[in-house]
Design goal:
Helix content is 37%, strand content 29%. With 309 residues, it is α+β, with helices and mostly antiparallel strands. It has 2 domains: 3-172, 2-Layer Sandwich (Ribosomal Protein S5, domain 2), CATH 3.30.230.10; 175-300, Alpha-Beta Plaits (2-Layer Sandwich), CATH 3.30.70.890. Strands 1, 2, 3, 4, 5, 6, 7 and 12 form an 8-stranded mixed beta sheet that branches. A 4-stranded antiparallel beta sheet has the order 9-10-8-11.
Length: 309
């Protein structure tokens, strides 16, 4: 059986404000800043048969009937290509980052699937065009606003115009090759619920707009970290546990912030400080809060963006 694969990095948003009023979803999204990490999503497509059939979705080889984003992406792709050849496909996502915790896994799943489908059917679309389908799917499913464009290009980005790749615009913030992201992840935070709350939207837009203006005046990694932390605090999104971790890091002169959206914290440090920061986070654990499974890990920053394998 023929197998095709594509990869998309995970993505973390530190600052954003919502810009989703455009009629065309390709122009909707968010302005803000974030970074991509090598820990991402790989999607493999296996052609089961050259006859019509509904795709079979799975995560890590385990069948799943609850992948609404992947199903919507598949629908958008096939509807955009009316003369698509009949194929019965097995679609498997290998998801490395924690799901629902601010790592852009829905966007990475959609983009890696879009790229893999494009390759499976002979690349009838440009990479930007299929990334646009992933962006539309995220908007439609209310699972993200600016994730896909960040994951498409990789690196540390400032999103200066909202929308899909080819429509939105980004500016890249330079960073050292020695920079790594360290994470402490306590649990998920629903993006769709957060983006539907008028009070949260207003708070995010006020704080995000102010932070973005400051970052554009001084576009460097240090300023991004500082403004991300301030944004998380100003929006009122920080949970007590997140605040306890940020305070812990601050005492060691480390600037941490909250992932948007997840009950999770990130810090960008040089490689030689990774073990120190991970050890500090492990000792803190849940900091006296009710027991939850805590995941601590680090990743290199990604500069390639989504790609065919």
């Amino acid at each position: 059986m023929n197998t095709i694969a594509a990869y998309t990095p995970g993505h973390v948003t530190g600052i954003f404000h919502i810009a989703d009023l455009a009629e065309d979803p390709l122009h909707r999204g968010s302005l803000g800043a974030g970074f991509s990490i090598d820990t991402g999503v790989t999607t493999r497509i296996t052609v089961l048969d050259e006859t019509p059939g509904e795709p079979v979705f799975s995560i890590g080889g385990i069948p799943s009937a609850d992948l609404k984003v992947s199903a919507a992406l598949y629908r958008h792709f096939t509807e955009s290509l009316p003369d698509i050849p009949a194929k019965h496909l097995q679609i498997d996502h290998i998801i490395k980052p924690p799901q629902g915790s601010g790592f852009g896994t829905s966007g990475a799943g959609a983009l890696s699937l879009a790229l893999a489908l494009n390759q499976c059917f002979g690349k009838p679309f440009s990479s930007e065009a299929v990334a646009g389908l992933a962006h539309i799917t995220e908007i439609e499913c209310r699972t993200g606003l600016g994730t896909v464009i960040g994951e498409f290009y990789g690196g540390v980005e400032i999103r200066t115009a909202p929308g899909a790749p080819g429509f939105g615009k980004i500016v890249t913030i330079p960073h050292s090759r020695d920079t790594r992201a360290v994470f402490a992840v306590r649990g998920p935070y629903s993006t769709s619920v957060a983006l539907s709350d008028p009070e949260i939207r207003d708070s995010v837009n006020r704080a995000g707009s102010a932070a973005l203006k400051q970052l554009q005046k001084e576009p460097c990694l240090k300023k991004f970290q500082e403004l991300s932390r301030q944004f998380a605090l100003d929006t009122g999104l920080c949970t007590p546990w997140v605040q306890s971790v940020l305070h812990l890091l601050e005492k060691k002169d480390i600037v941490g912030s909250m992932l948007m959206f997840g009950e999770a914290v990130f810090a960008l440090v040089d490689t030689d400080r990774v073990r120190e920061v991970e050890s500090l986070l492990r000792k803190h654990g849940n900091g006296g809060f009710e027991e939850k499974l805590l995941r601590i890990f680090s990743s290199a920053l990604n500069t390639t963006g989504g790609r065919y394998l």
